[in-house]
Amino acid sequence: MAEIRGNKVSFDTDHLVLTAGATSANETLMFCLAEKGDAILLPTPYYPGFDRDLKWRTGVEIVSIQCSSSNGFQITESALEAAYQEAQRKNLRVKGVLVTNPSNPLGTTMSRNELDLLVNFVTDKEIHLISDEIYSGTVFSSPAFVSIMEVLKDRKLENTQVWERVHVVYSLSKDLGLPGFRVGAIYSNDPIVVAAATKMSSFGLVSSQTQYLLSAMLSDKKFTKEYISKNHKRLQKRQNKLVSGLEKAGISCLESNAGLFCWVDMRHLLSSNTFEAEMELWKRIVYDVKLNISPGSSCHCTEPGWFRVCFANMSEDTLKLAMQRLKSFVSFITIDNQTHQDLKNMRKKNRTKWVFRLSFQSFHDREQGER
C-alpha cells in the first residue's frame, strides 16, 4: 500500500485488517460504523455493487451526492450539503461518506481540493469518511493519486478526532489483477473499529495458502516495482486506443487518468433525453453490436446517455474489432436518426399545409354564406 502511494504515507500493520476482498471490507465497515436505517452518502455515479455490498445485509441506506458533467462529476460543497439535508428530511441519521478514489466508473482521481472538502465536511458533521482506494495502483497519467491518509498527514490531523474517523479500503484485485484471490484490507486509526473488524473477519478470512503465496510474491521488490511500472504503461496504451477509436466514431469520453474503463458520452445518440432512451440504446449495443457496456443509470448517474466501457479485459485485436463495430453502428444510427427526423419534419410540414388549407376553406365557406 505504501509503495503504490509513492511511500508518501506509511501504514501500521496493527491498524490493518485482512478481508476476503474489498466487498467484504466495505460491508464489514458498514456493520462497524452504522446501524440499520442509518445513511451513508455516496457521490454519483458510483459502482453498482455498492447497492449490494453496503445495504443488503446491513440495512444501511444510501443517499446520493448528486454530481454532474458540468464540472467533470466532481464533488462540491453544495452537493454534499444537499445530500446531508435530504437524509435528514428522510429521518435518516448520516454516519459517513464513502468515496472511490480513483473513481469507478469515472476513471479519474480526486483532486486535493475535493479531498480537503471531504475532510472539512466530515469534521464539521462529526461523521466518518471511507476512502475506497482499490484502483490506486492503476493511475497511469497525471494528476497523480493522492490518498486520503496523505491529506490527513499533510494537514497534521493525527491528534484530532477526524483522524480516527477516516478509514481506507484496499484490495489486490485491481492493482495486481487478482480478483479471484479475494484479498482485501481495512485500514483504520480507530482501535475500536480495528477490534470489531478483526472479530468480523472470521466470516471472510484469506486462506493461509493465499497469504503465503502473496507474501513470497510481494516480498520481491524488484518484481513489484517492474510490474507496477509495466502495468501503468499498458493501461495508458490501451486507454489511448479506446479513446482514439471512440473519437473516430464521433464519441467522446470524460478525460481520465486511472482505472480499467472510460466514462463515455453517448448523449448525442439518444432518441430523447430520457433514461428510457438510454436503455433502448444500451440494448441495441448489447444485442445488435454485441458489445457489453454498462449504462450510466446502473451507476445512478443523473444524466442519461453516459456509459462505462472497459478496455483492460480484452486483447488489442478484440478492442480494435469492437471499435470497428461501434463506428459502423454510430454511422447507421446517425443516418437512421436523420431519416426519422426528416420524416418528422415532412409530416409537420404537410400537417401545417393541411391546417392552412382547412382554415382557408373554412374562411371561404363563411364568406360565401355571408354573401
From TrEMBL:
It comes from the Eukaryota. Its cofactor is pyridoxal 5'-phosphate. Coiled coil: none annotated. One of its GO terms (biological process) is fruit ripening. PROSITE patterns: AA_TRANSFER_CLASS_1. It catalyses: S-adenosyl-L-methionine = 1-aminocyclopropane-1-carboxylate + S-methyl-5'-thioadenosine + H(+). One of its GO terms (molecular function) is pyridoxal phosphate binding. Its EC number is 4.4.1.14. Keywords: Ethylene biosynthesis, Fruit ripening, Lyase, Pyridoxal phosphate, S-adenosyl-L-methionine. Pathway: Alkene biosynthesis; ethylene biosynthesis via S-adenosyl-L-methionine; ethylene from S-adenosyl-L-methionine: step 1/2. SUPFAM superfamilies: PLP-dependent transferases (SSF53383). InterPro entries: Aminotransferase_I/II_large, Ethylene_sulfur-biosynth, NHTrfase_class1_PyrdxlP-BS, PyrdxlP-dep_Trfase, PyrdxlP-dep_Trfase_major, PyrdxlP-dep_Trfase_small. Residues 5-326 form the Aminotransferase class I/classII large domain. Belongs to the class-I pyridoxal-phosphate-dependent aminotransferase family. This is 1-aminocyclopropane-1-carboxylate synthase. It comes from Gossypium barbadense.
